[in-house]
Design goal:
- The protein is built from 18 helices and 22 strands.
- The chain is α/β, with parallel strands linked by helices.
- It has 3 domains: about 270 residues, TIM Barrel (Alpha-Beta Barrel); about 100 residues, no CATH class; about 130 residues, no CATH class.
- The strands form 3 sheets. Strands 7-6-5-4-3-2-1-8-9 form a 9-stranded mixed β-sheet. Strands 13, 16, 17, 18, 19, 20, 21 and 22 form an 8-stranded antiparallel β-sheet that branches.
- Helix 3 packs parallel to helix 4.
- It starts with 10 loop residues before the first strand and ends in a 7-residue tail after the last strand.
- The relative contact order is 0.06.
Length: about 600
């Protein structure tokens, strides 16, 4: 949609039906359920509310044109002097005489969704019979024929294609198909969405298209775009469009302060749209949920871009390394505005707050503090080669030192009873050796993290995969036991940590003695009221067989770890029979008792 003038200008999307003749697997309506089938009176009330501040009313849905009273709805909105547009998949337009009836009622334009390149992809993606693909094309032809017969008052036509793996590499083919069936009515084309799909039986991550492949395709697509068809992009990262960022509708909306509203979340309400750039859009708030925020925040176009992976509303569709955006540094809002004014003269004299839109985002995400530990120069020959978000981790790092390479997976534990890698703060650091003999490189990297100013646990709140209770247990264990949690770390005497595991109550360390004995050290923290501190900490040492005698080496070191606490030791009756060699209970010491 194009920005329009008026009291506030812009447009409002009104979802007025749950009816649809397609069940597209990537449609958010398929999982959200929609606002329900509104009565005609309720729809008119929505139109009244929208008409007070907006010039354009977009009737959507699911499929708005399936409402039996759609002609009355269109006539009512047009009677208020509004430009009325219908968002449609095009099938209903194939009915003989229906386009004429809609225009007669006052319809000014249609937006036709066209996402599938052929009947087979259409059948899979829309979950309907492949023969219905022909109805979509026929609907385009009906609009074309109407406009050819009424050149004095044609209905505007806007075609929209969401980018996703099933049309990757086929955009030029789809453009040719639209041109063939719409003819001269094909004047506006919008691409965007970067939408994943939910396909039963197919692993979700394989359905997310890589940025690089799409970037290459779009470069050729832009170079061959017919000059008589206006091309726009929406909900697409601007770094996919080098040199063409001014073609982004989201950038245009931001530059024009275009307000956009919809009623997609609550029945009967035309409310603020947190998913769309507009006059009231606060990027900083949305930015906190962006898994590539440490990259995007350095981009000069950060306040014009609607790149938000979480807009997909599906945690399983978190991005991969191949979807990492590139920060745009060579163009800013002023340059985009100048390029836009060259193709959209209405922007030439428009007052735009370029200073505000050029202001960098100052909120530093926690990832930056982790990256800083590796970007700073050091004497350990350690180099950060790449960083990205990949699935559940908060951050994945690829490091090298000399000829050695390793990967660190930084995340919070996802389940109880989970094996741990190298714990640092509330994060579990899981290494992968990319070259043989890279173990020392991993140790250097983990040491760097341990010495760094780590982001506090609260900074990760709200992140996908972050579980506050598990993170609190892990953080408490790190604060108390530190690198004892690491595999191979010396604890005391001949004892070393063999492995660590998160449990429902705390953390369990399996210890091994040089003499062959084994023991299990469990750490159980109990949060105080409000969970801002600990009320009690318990260490329990289980030894087996001959290890019992050797565990006495551990007691001084364990007690020393609780300096400043009120510590008591002792074994309840029968404890040794259960293999308990040491029980240590620590509580915060009164201020007068603290050393």
């Amino acid at each position: 949609m194009e920005p329009s003038g008026g009291a506030e200008g812009g447009f409002v999307d009104l979802a007025i039906t749950e009816r649809c003749n397609q069940r597209c697997i990537f449609c958010y309506e398929d999982t959200r359920g929609g606002p329900g089938e509104l009565t005609l009176a309720a729809v008119k009330q929505l139109v009244d509310e929208a008409a007070r501040t907006h010039d354009t009313v977009v009737l959507c849905g699911k499929e708005a044109l399936l409402r039996p009273d759609i002609l009355e709805v269109v006539a009512y909105a047009a009677g208020l002097g509004k430009h009325v547009v219908a968002f449609t998949n095009g099938q209903v337009l194939a009915r003989p005489g229906f386009v004429e009836a809609l225009v007669g009622a006052g319809l000014g334009g249609v937006v036709i969704s066209f996402h599938f390149p052929d009947p087979e992809a259409f059948a899979q993606g829309a979950r309907v019979r492949p023969q219905l693909f022909a109805r979509v094309l026929k609907g385009m032809e009906r609009v074309r024929d109407y406009n050819l017969a009424h050149p004095e008052a044609p209905v505007s036509v806007h075609v929209e294609t969401d980018l996703f793996v099933w049309n990757q590499g086929r955009l030029a083919e789809m453009r040719a198909t639209v041109r063939e069936h719409l003819g001269p009515s094909f004047r506006q084309y919008t691409l965007g969405g970067m939408t994943p799909v939910r396909l039963p039986g197919v692993e979700e991550r394989s359905l997310i298209e890589p940025f690089e492949a799409r970037r290459v395709e779009l470069a050729d697509f832009l170079a061959t775009q017919p000059p008589d068809v206006a091309l726009r992009f929406t909900k697409t990262p601007l770094c996919l469009l080098p040199g063409h960022e001014h073609l982004s509708l989201d950038a245009q909306y931001a530059l024009a302060s275009t307000p956009i509203r919809h009623n997609l979340y609550q029945v009967g309400e035309v409310g603020g749209d947190d998913e769309t750039l507009g006059a009231s859009y606060e990027f900083d708030a949305a930015f906190q949920r962006n898994p590539y925020r440490w990259v995007c925040r350095s981009c000069r176009l950060v306040r014009l871009c609607r790149f938000r992976r979480t807009a997909w509303y599906a945690p399983q569709f978190l991005p991969t390394r191949e979807q990492k955006p590139r920060a745009v540094h060579d163009r800013g809002p002023a340059e985009v505005l100048a390029a836009l004014a060259a193709v959209e003269p209405s922007f030439a004299g428009r007052a735009v707050d370029v200073e505000r839109l050029s202001r960098p985002v100052t909120t530093a995400p926690p990832e930056e503090r982790l990256l800083a530990a590796f970007e700073a120069p050091g004497h350990d020959d350690l180099r950060l080669d790449e960083a990205w978000v990949d699935g559940r981790p908060f951050l994945t790092l690829e490091l090298s030192g000399g000829a050695e390479r390793a990967r660190l997976w930084l995340t919070a534990p996802a389940t109880d009873e989970q094996p741990l890698g190298f714990v640092v703060g509330c994060l579990d650091v899981v290494p992968t050796l990319l070259t043989p003999g890279a173990g020392p490189l991993v140790k250097k990297a983990v040491d760097r993290l341990a010495r760094a100013a780590l982001p506090p646990r609260a900074d990760w709140e709200g992140q996908h995969g972050f579980h506050p209770h598990r993170a609190r247990r892990l953080q408490a264990a790190w604060d108390r036991l530190g690198p004892w949690l690491w595999p191979g770390q010396a604890v005391a005497g001949g004892w070393r940590t063999h492995e660590a595991r998160l449990t429902r109550a705390g953390v369990a360390l399996r210890l091994a003695h040089a003499g062959g004995a084994t023991a299990v050290l469990t750490y159980t923290p109990t949060p105080a009221a409000g969970e801002t501190s600990l009320a009690r900490e318990v260490l329990t040492l289980h030894a087996a067989g001959s290890g019992d005698a050797q565990t006495v080496e551990l007691e001084p070191a364990l007690r020393a770890a609780f300096t400043g606490c009120k510590v008591s030791t002792g074994l309840p009756p029968g404890a040794r029979g259960r293999g308990i060699a040491l029980l240590l209970v620590a509580e915060p010491a009164p201020a007068a008792e603290a050393p």
